[in-house]
Amino acid sequence: MNAPVSKEPLDPRDRPARLTVGVVGAGRVGPALAASLQLAGHRPVAVSGVSDASRRRAAELLPDVPLVEPAEVLARAELVLLTVPDDVLPTLVEGLAETGAVRPGQLLVHTSGRYGARVLDPALRAGALPLALHPAMTFTGTAVDVQRLAGCSFGVTAPEELRLAAEALVIEMGGEPEWIAEESRPLYHTALALGANHLVTLVAQSMELLARAGVAAPDRMLGPLLGAALDNALRSGDAALTGPVARGDAGTVAAHIGELREHAPQAVAGYLAMARATADRALAHGLLKAELAEDLLGVLADQERRRPGGPGPGETR
């Protein structure tokens, strides 16, 4: 009689090809990714961090993992996550390679959206295996980030021979790999920053204005509205445009700008820029009637001239 087949799930630690993991730069991203890899059975062994905040994050998400210098992280780990700010990354990679910290066969992963794998060329020449894995998500620096990685898209760039390894790591973290060509990384990152970073600014401004208008819970009021707007935009693109600009309600737009001048003058420039961009897209997609667009664009041009530092008479931007 054949022995019964066990249906117990395989412990992640018993899977083949488990790696020791190190983190250089314990900002909001690195500890979360390392914790996610730990859930997949890999073993974090070292982390570097300078600020008190980074050390607290490492202690929360990677308890009992020692804090060491960057060179020591590379000495201990087979897979190293370089999770430092974009502008710091090239110098860090060059320094690690020049000092001999990089070992042949070591997987070196950076999480910058701006750069592809080419920024890791100094490490590649030292024998490292370069991967660019950028999670398209905002991070809080807390344990909730590990949960949010489930289904998160990663911008993946790597040499063709490492493509399967890169995609496998993303999948182990619960993410979805999206291949980005090396030359497209700057445009890819620009697109994400345009949507995510500016969204936070717009929402924060909206919450401040609602509070000034007497709304007790601006977040509760905005939540359903913004959730529906985001869902509609992702499903329908420009067809989801709505509101006074898309309708061509020039008088309402002028009233909005008047309120901003009185209560939040620092928001006028952003409102004008977004209103003009919205009008252009609504007009191009047939949502804004040409006869209404003329009055609306006239209001925007007039208000732009009134803005300190705006174009003078007869000038355009």
Oligomerization: single chain
Q: Beta-strand percentage?
A: 5-15%
Number of helices: 13
Summarize the biggest pleated sheet. Answer: 7 strands, mixed
* Count of DSSP strands: 7
Which structural class should the secondary elements be placed in? alpha/beta
Blueprint of the fold:
Elements (H helix, E strand, L loop, with lengths): L19 E5 L5 H10 L3 E6 L3 H10 L8 H7 L2 E4 L6 H10 L8 E4 L10 H5 L3 E7 L8 H5 L4 E5 L5 H10 L3 E4 L5 H28 L5 H19 L7 H4 L2 H14 L4 H17 L5 H17 L11
Parallel strand pairs: 1-2, 1-3, 3-4, 4-5, 6-7
Antiparallel strand pairs: 5-6
Helix pairs in contact: 11-13, 12-13
Describe this protein's structure.
The protein is an alpha/beta fold. The chain is built from 13 helices and seven strands. The longest helix is centred in the middle third of the chain and has 28 residues, at 185-212. It starts with 19 loop residues before the first strand and ends in an 11-residue tail after the last helix. Strands 2-1-3-4-5-6-7 form a seven-stranded mixed beta sheet. Mean pLDDT is 91; it is low at 1-16 and 312-317.
List its traits:
alpha/beta; seven-stranded mixed beta sheet; 7 strands; elongated; disordered N terminus
In short:
It is built from 13 helices and seven strands. The chain has helices at 30-39, 52-61, 70-76, 89-98, 121-125, 144-148, 163-172, 185-212, 218-236, 244-247, 250-263, 268-284, 290-306; strands at 20-24, 43-48, 79-82, 107-110, 129-135, 153-157, 176-179.
